[in-house]
Amino acid sequence: MADKHILVAGGAGVVGRTAIAAFEEAGWPVTTLNRDDTALGKGQHIPADLLDPNSLDASSDTLKTVTHLFYAALKPNADPGVEADENATMLENLVAALRRVGAPLERVTFIQGGKVYGAQLGVYRTPAREDDSRHFPPNLYFRHEDFARSLEKDGIRWTALRPDIVIGHSLGSAMNLGNLIGVYGSLCRATGTSFQFPGTEKAYRDTLVNVTGADVLRRAALWSVETEADGAFNITNGDVFRWSHVWPKLAAWFGLEVGEPQPISLVQRLHAMRPVWRELAKANDLAEADIDRLAPGAFGDFIFNVEADAIFDVTKARRAGFAMDERSDDVLLAHLDDMRQRKLIP
Question: Can you give the pTM of this predicted structure?
Fold first, then answer.
């Protein structure tokens, strides 16, 4: 690895943390980059605002040896046009800075997700394949991929990893479903409530779903740079499920009855339960008393009410040699164990 150097941009979220751990464990020299100056790994850290290209000027010496870029940065915006423009600018500014200092950049790996297929619209062609037609633009992931393709003429190769609903550790993430389940179940137990699915009957019993565990994504991150996998690849645990298959097992983990599906707004309910969570955190010496830092409810309000199948075809990655053979119920239960071990839930 003496001649390799990977830069991980956007390391504070589930995906970034997972990638940093994977590369460090494999012996890669890793530099991290994020908006603030909080160190995210064992190596050097660059605080930078990627919308401001001048914020990278002070890091030229570090950037000039980067051979691989793992890009997981994201700036959400409710306006898809603004979101696409800002996120495209961020990636392009970073790659321009690397090229400006003469970095021997070989490969860019970037993260996409269900939004590339139109998942945010509530329905898309399933099982989604990497060569499916794009939905009507704009979309930040289209911009990222088109930019990556433009680099091919200069010998820079690219990989797009497309996980769906990543289950792993992070705080302050708007899309951490595993943490949300942990918080919701803990509050159900604290209030003597059965573990009712907080979405529609159809979403509970009929919709096919897949998720991506942090361990699978960790392996995929390493695979994308070490096997030189070119192009876009769907990455999931490898199975599909209905919430009605998994929810009783989650209820049993909390020691709760399952109850019936009952649509509620988790945004509203968790906001109202802030005082209860603070008391729960104090009584159990939990690591995080701010319920919003653990699990904002909006992502669950969307996911638990999707009534059309939302699954990816992972044949392409399997044919390229990447194994996906996890059971998602095991992944979700392991995440709850991890939350308890980290003292995030009682």
Answer: 0.95
